[in-house]
Each structure stands twice: as structure tokens, then as C-alpha cells.
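To: structure subgroup
Subject: Chain for Friday's discussion

All,

I'm putting the inputs and outputs inline so they're searchable in the archive.
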Amino acid sequence: MQKIFHTRQFMAGNSPAVRIPVSMAFPKHTKLVVIREGNRLIVEPEENSLESLPALFAALRPQHTAERPEFVEAERSW
């Protein structure tokens, strides 16, 4: 089902902007791509590719300590 919302272009600082309703918004921090095709502007999420993989691993690095917890063997009654 296609949603339609009417709006106008306005200026936000020195940049033209368009307000969209919350129901049509992408999740926060979603990188978007704007494509112009004639008189149409298409806004869509940026597609993830393997090029972004090193950046994802770099973001994980601060959480990884490279230390292994000591293994404590529990007594079992078998």
C-alpha cells in the first residue's frame, strides 16, 4: 500500500528541506541516499555492502578486551 503525504519545500539554514511525518520516517541513524530522477526525488536507505565491513569490525574493537576468563571446572556427580 502506497502512503501519500503532501508537504512543501522550505529553507533550513541555507539548505532546502522537506518535512515528513513520523509514520513515514526511517529508524534513527539510518544513512540515506537521495537520488534525483527528472522531477522526482527518491530517498532510500543506503545499501550495506562488503565495503562497510571493516568499519563495523573497527566499531567492535573497543568492546573486545582480548582477555580470556579463567576456566573453573565445576565438580560433577556422574
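Points worth raising on Friday:
The helical segments are 53-60.
The chain is about 10% helix and 25% strand.

D.
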